[in-house]
């Protein structure tokens, strides 16, 4: 399965929102709450320039958004969603790697993410470590951080 990675376009926003909701509902948890929550079915317009998309055979099968906070020198991983029919095929890992690359290019020294218990193993297997717990709309979630390699060539 060939995965094509690209930057999102404004016209992708509705498709990404639908994918976000479909992926969230696939676990079978909090169905009514998710369907009622506007944020569960949309990608914020201001995040679209920061979204990276994965396509297979011309179809969007996943996306990630990574937003850089220059004052903290940290990037925030806002969304990472993959279509349920392609779960466990490495697409999430590819998107995560692309997000980390983009964060490093922007000057981030680390990436921060809030992840539910089902997503936490992906991040920990990718080098993120637990830094705390936060309340979310549905359940407590883990805060995880990963330090990014720094370019030492200019030192």
Short summary:
The protein is α+β, with helices and mostly antiparallel strands and 155 residues long. It is built from four helices and seven strands; from the N terminus they run βααβββαβαββ.
Report on this model:
It is built from four helices and seven strands, in the order E-H-H-E-E-E-H-E-H-E-E. The protein has 155 residues and is an alpha+beta fold. It is globular and about 40 Å long.
Q: In this structure, how is the largest beta sheet organized?
A: 7 strands, mixed
Structural class: alpha+beta
List low-pLDDT spans.
none
**Rg over alpha carbons:** 15 Å
Which sequence of strands runs across the widest sheet?
1-2-3-4-5-7-6
Gap from first CA to last CA? 40 Å
Which shape, going by the Cα principal axes? globular
The oligomerization state is single chain
Listing every helix as H and every strand as E from the N terminus to the C terminus, the arrangement reads: EHHEEEHEHEE
- What is the percent of helical residues? 25-40%
Q: Could you tell me the number of beta strands?
A: 7
Number of helices: 4
Describe the structure using short key phrases.
155 residues, seven-stranded mixed sheet, 7 strands, alpha+beta, globular
């Amino acid at each position: 399965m060939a995965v094509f990675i690209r930057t999102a376009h404004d016209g992708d926003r509705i498709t990404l929102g639908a994918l976000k909701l479909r992926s969230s509902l696939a676990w079978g948890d909090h169905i009514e709450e998710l369907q009622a929550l506007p944020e569960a079915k949309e990608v914020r317009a201001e995040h679209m320039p920061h979204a990276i998309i994965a396509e297979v055979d011309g179809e969007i099968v996943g996306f990630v958004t990574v937003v850089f906070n220059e004052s903290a020198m940290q990037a925030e991983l806002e969304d990472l969603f993959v279509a349920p029919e392609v779960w466990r095929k490495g697409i999430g890992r590819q998107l995560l790697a692309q997000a980390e690359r983009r964060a490093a290019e922007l000057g981030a020294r680390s990436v921060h993410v809030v992840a539910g218990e089902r997503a936490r193993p992906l991040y920990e297997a990718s080098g993120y470590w637990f830094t705390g717990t936060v309340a979310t709309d549905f359940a407590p979630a883990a805060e995880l951080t990963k330090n990014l390699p720094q370019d030492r060539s200019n030192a």
